[in-house]
Amino acid sequence: MRRLLAFLALLACASAHALSGVVTHVTDGDTLWVRPEGGAPVKVRLQGIDAPERCQAWGAQAREALAARVLHRQVQVRTRAKDAYHRTIGTVSLDEHDVAAWMVREGYAWSQRYRRSLGPYAAEEAEARRLLRGLFAAPAAIEPRQFRKAHGPCQ
């Protein structure tokens, strides 16, 4: 059993990488570019959240909030994988605070659902809903997943 646990811990460490750099661009409410010192910028998708699409209600506000929070600032990224759009998926931290958690807590994104799970930021989303923060104050706010299904991707 100890060997199995040691192997799983090693595997977890090997599958996650870290990078540190300055945010050079914010594409939308859940995607940004990080330039590591001496390296090329890396496109990063915030893991665990789904922000409104650029052409969707609250899309511009989500992008602006993320930019105000992290643009031109030093961040740390714990990477997990690449998505279908070749973005690095990762947890982004600013001054040791989870940026995705902040986006959800302030009402600029939803906790990304996984099958029957409410996602990793369910508590932050519940708080934002309770306090009617950001998009959670809008009774007709549509989750980006449903928006893309109905309207397709933004052009």
UniProtKB/TrEMBL annotation:
Signal peptide: 1-18
Pfam short name (any one): SNase
SUPFAM superfamilies associated with the record: Staphylococcal nuclease (SSF50199)
Record-annotated TNase-like domain positions: 17-138
Key words, A-Z: Endonuclease, Hydrolase, Nuclease, Signal
InterPro entries: SNase_OB-fold_sf, Staphylococal_nuclease_OB-fold, Thermonucl_AS
Cross-referenced Gene3D superfamilies: 2.40.50.90
Name the UniProt record assigns to this protein: Thermonuclease family protein
Species this protein is from: Piscinibacter gummiphilus
